[in-house]
Amino acid sequence: MTIKDIAKLCGVSVSTVSRVLNNRPDVSEEIRKKVLSVIESSNYIPNNCARDLVKTKSDAIGLVVRGVSNPFYTDIIRAVEKRIDEAGFTMVMQQIGVCDDEIKCGAIMEREKRLQGIVLLGGRSDYTAAELALLTVPFVCCSYSNQYGTLNPTEYSSVSIADEEEAFRAVTELYQKGHRRIAALISRTDDHSISELRYRGYERALRTCGIELDSSLVIATGSFRIQDAYESMQKRLGETDDFTAVFAIADNMAIGAMRALREHGRSVPGDCSVIAIDGLEISNYIDPILTTLCQPMEEMGTRSVEILVDMIEGRSGHRHEVLTTTLRPGASVKSIV
Amino acid sequence: MTIKDIAKLCGVSVSTVSRVLNNRPDVSEEIRKKVLSVIESSNYIPNNCARDLVKTKSDAIGLVVRGVSNPFYTDIIRAVEKRIDEAGFTMVMQQIGVCDDEIKCGAIMEREKRLQGIVLLGGRSDYTAAELALLTVPFVCCSYSNQYGTLNPTEYSSVSIADEEEAFRAVTELYQKGHRRIAALISRTDDHSISELRYRGYERALRTCGIELDSSLVIATGSFRIQDAYESMQKRLGETDDFTAVFAIADNMAIGAMRALREHGRSVPGDCSVIAIDGLEISNYIDPILTTLCQPMEEMGTRSVEILVDMIEGRSGHRHEVLTTTLRPGASVKSIV
């Protein structure tokens, strides 16, 4: 029994049957009922995807993007959309502010758009099981994981980098070039976000290298915004400039800080080295070219969708993938040994 | 007769009536029919918006973004979403490649999501009436207009800057600083996009200033990508570097070109001035800070939605708004007079 047989039995075209399976509005209620009853009484087994659709779902996968202006997301979004298309679904995207709740947003979208699954791009790392009960479809945390939450790893999926480990690596890179007074440019030390994770990596790297943590070298800007990074570094340099290197948790923040350093007469990397994590395209064109650990953005988006579709189509359960960054040596780090 | 009366007559809550008016799926067919029949037999007049919704439309406004990786769009998207929210609608966004057809995409979305209206962010400037007949809901061209098309201005709406005029202004700015050998960094001269429009402004400025057009100074990269701008400028400088200034049609392209200039030992602005159009936030942090004409991105997004909602709610017909840029003087232009 194929879709063609169903169409013949109902006296409608194949595309009409397809429209019914896809829950399209442009089919009369009468035809819809007829097609569904024939399908139910026949031996026709739609593929997983189509079978789900019959159960009132659309063919949509939701993408909730938290923090729209994050340039780091652009390539991920593109990869997510491409892979969703290739998998035969359509993408419905919603952007929310950094202070909004991605789970609530996802839950509303899930009901309103009858989603099959959700990719959460950016979000908190401290979910509880109770919160996540709001979501009844499979979902994947893209670019972050649940380090500070109480979720059982078998209850959710994620694709991310090892934020703490990568920060450790960046700071160690500076240490190996002879730097001992290393400032950290972060958002906050305790926000349960990648800022806290990367700050931990900074702390651990210092400890491992036998350097005592100097809290006056921790510059917490309170956000990931370029302007806040610039202003915080301005303020810091107005007080003291007793460091030879800066580890910035994001490219954008590094670029903001570099302007402040210049304005205080400190050349990069002559007077101060700068390293970051992200790997934005534009960082590769500025002067000096930023030395940064590049996240595999395309792979991150693609793998998130692949894991999600595997879950939607019943091929596998929850999974966690940790991807690695690639050091892109620019010209913003100088060896002082 | 108010929504409360309707609720009382039906024996349901106000929010249930609201859900019916908003065509939400979480209402039983029985309740839906009851509420709609009471509304029909009563004197209750939903406002324009709600009345439309009863007629099978959702509360969604579509946003079709052409060229997702364009950083210039980020602030516009945020403003569009904010204004759509404030107006009581929800945004459904679709991103398409620079080679995709925004009208076809909009037409499909319109049917699938039962849109009330569409904002097209980025698109071709040469539509024909036949093409646009695909769209049956109001729409606004955001950030571009229809200079090369055959549309009657009363048949569509737009919010844009005067691209040719702004390019004219940028090139004139260079002329007034003493520059006579001015290169243009564009995508193409004949693509019916803002590239062609801004190229025309460059041509007209030269003509007005009495400078003969030298086609060897027109660097057409074939795209708006930063890497293509970098490579095209590299190639050009490998041949000859007989210009003292560059007008780039976009900030990103200017940033790509500036790296090529540096690598050829030409300092900006010492040996070569650079001016652009866009006003990305990041251009204000790089070294040297880019001198650029800032587009009013937030206003562009906000006004597009306002015009669209006015049309949806029957308050006005098609309109065209031309916004102006603001010169943000950076440090990339040097006077040589």
Quick summary of this structure?
Chain A folds into three domains: 3-54, 434 Repressor (Amino-terminal Domain); 60-162 and 297-324, Response regulator (Rossmann fold, 3-Layer(aba) Sandwich); 163-295, Response regulator (Rossmann fold, 3-Layer(aba) Sandwich), CATH 3.40.50.2300.
Q: Could you characterize the architecture of this molecule?
A:
Two copies of one chain form a homodimer. By secondary structure, chain A is of the alpha/beta class. The first copy, chain A, folds into three domains: 3-54, 434 Repressor (Amino-terminal Domain), CATH 1.10.260.40; 60-162 and 297-324, Rossmann fold (3-Layer(aba) Sandwich); 163-295, Rossmann fold (3-Layer(aba) Sandwich). Chain A is 41% helix and 17% strand. Chain A has twelve helices and twelve strands. Chain A has helices at 3-10, 14-21, 29-41, 48-54, 73-86, 102-112, 129-132, 163-176, 194-208, 226-239, 251-263, 297-312; strands at residues 60-66, 90-96, 117-121, 139-142, 157-161, 182-186, 218-220, 245-248, 273-278, 291-294, 320-323, 326-328. In chain A, strands 2-1-3-4-5-11 form a six-stranded parallel beta sheet, with helices on both faces. The first copy, chain A, has a six-stranded mixed beta sheet with strand order 7-6-8-9-10-12, sandwiched between helices. In chain A, helix 7 links the parallel strand 3 and strand 4 (139-142). The first copy, chain A, is elongated, with a radius of gyration of 24 Å. The termini of chain A are far apart. The model of chain A is unreliable at 45-55 (pLDDT under 50). Chain A binds chain B through residues 24-26, 56, 68-69, 71, 74-75, 77-78, 81, 90-95, 111-112, 114, 226-227, 230, 252, 255-256, 258-259, 262, 281-282, 285-287, 289, and chain B through 24-26, 56, 68-69, 71, 74-75, 77-78, 81, 90-95, 111-112, 114, 226-227, 230, 252, 255-256, 258-259, 262, 281-282, 285-287, 289.
